[in-house]
Amino acid sequence: LCSGGVCVLACDAVTCVDCPTGAAVCTTCGSNTYLIDGGCDVTCAGVADDNGGAATGRTCTACHVSCASCTGTGAGDCTDLGGGVLDCAIGFLQSGSTCEPLVDCHPSCSTCLGETANDCVTCAPNSSGGAIGGGVCVCDAGWVWDATSEACVPCDDPNCVDCSAGAATCADCASGFGIVGVACVACDAACDECTVGASATDCVNCADGYTLAGGNECVACTATGDCDDCDASDLATCTACGSGQLIQGGNCVVTCGSGWFADSLSTCAQCTVGNCASCPLDPTCAVCELGYQGLSCLGSAGTSCAVNADCASSLCSGGVCVLACDAVTCVDCPTGAAVCTTCGSNTYLIDGGCDVTCAGVADDNGGAATGRTCTACHVSCASCTGTGAGDCTDLGGGVLDCAIGFLQSGSTCEPLVDCHPSCSTCLGETANDCVTCAPNSSGGAIGGGVCVCDAGWVWDATSEACVPCDDPNCVDCSAGAATCADCASGFGIVGVACVACDAACDECTVGASATDCVNCADGYTLAGGNECVACTATGDCDDCDASDLATCTACGSGQLIQGGNCVVTCGSGWFADSLSTCAQCTVGNCASCPLDPTCAVCELGYQGLSCLGSAGTSCAVN
Description:
The chain is mainly β and 622 residues long. The chain has no helices and 68 strands.
């Protein structure tokens, strides 16, 4: 054959002695080998129909269909396994010196040893069981036997795992779903798992941040930090933290605070030594709190932190006495450098520290300078020049800077009437006067506005608050908490409840079966109305032609369309003409053409640029 411009030996010299049509297709094998499917082997095993093979004049041919292995090709040539027992193929039974076909298998069997449901060797689709010696096949979870079609059919609810009483009647749901009537509904967000019912009172296990408190109800933990579980009798006391956090005083912290140490991988304990700031080797104190000392100054050897009497108005640091206060801003701090009592020039005392203005006091209402000490404005003032009700800052033209919830009345700011229940803060008592909104709602404005309940919540006139829709997957229950008008993506309305869309749907609206889809999941296409049907093209096919399900129109995972199917790389004689499709090479008998219409490599037995010098424009017989 022609290879790289020169002629080479066509056949494998060891196993094949004649291959006139190409090295890969042998017609005569060498010594001690047998011809089988165009190749040579030392035995006749592995023929195309997997039934073994028989040696006939150094050429392997398939056993008779009734034989699992054989000594010849006839029906009477099945291998004798000993004692006259023949090696029959599955679906055949020995009858004298031959293997004869069985009667039809039971519909639940794929292959069998007899016609009853107890004789299955392998099982029909969507079931399992059977055995080499015969056994029973049972429908898989989520499927049930249908006597009419004599096959396993799926439960009507895609989240049902046991509908043994009938496809429409669910007895058990998949994890994360609970039974409501005969349907599977997603568990409440508070539940990790639920069974009968899907509300927060029907939980088996709770989601992170919730705990079982009486029966099957999951209630939210109130401890701070990333709390996974808490004490049912005290929701503010965490018993398990997430994200590698530690329990300290019932809350979750990233690192133990001053005066605490990690006594395990999950909890912090207080230092044994009083007034100790850091004790990684408890009960020995490593660093005392400010104003105390351990190993230095008074030499307490790390077993106690005593008041540093030797330093008087200074503090003990690193074994020596240092100035206790910040010399620039604080001139007196008798109880510790962090707690100032008298500030220096051009600064004001505020919350134990010194600042150049009185802004930023604890209650965020501004502050007034009174003898170099900042005190809070009156509660009615947003900013002020003094601490009285008449000291609110004049913004100009007699307009006072009133705090939210207060309105100017003459020379003072007076409280508003009660806000509407939908408001958190307001400029008046109507629903149109909200500045900020009550929980689970949004809207409002600096000049007043309306607050509207968030998606999944609805206004309840009795409690005068936004309450959640009864169905956790409902985003619009404006007609009442129990009546859902629109569901979250991935769920469709069945009656007034939200049910997970069929696996064939990417999104559904009214209804949740494969005939109620808006968009289809990968591997399905819309075929008439809102029905999603499965594509049958091979490979990772995301979408296909609704009129020909075996013709793919979009592949996934970076695969390419070739002849209606999805492939990882274009096959021999094809090239990638875009990022998504393969096209046939322009030159006939071309195996590879990445720069089509020029052929790079011809098929075996043909040549392009070499031997006959066709310059890559054709592949002629060599």
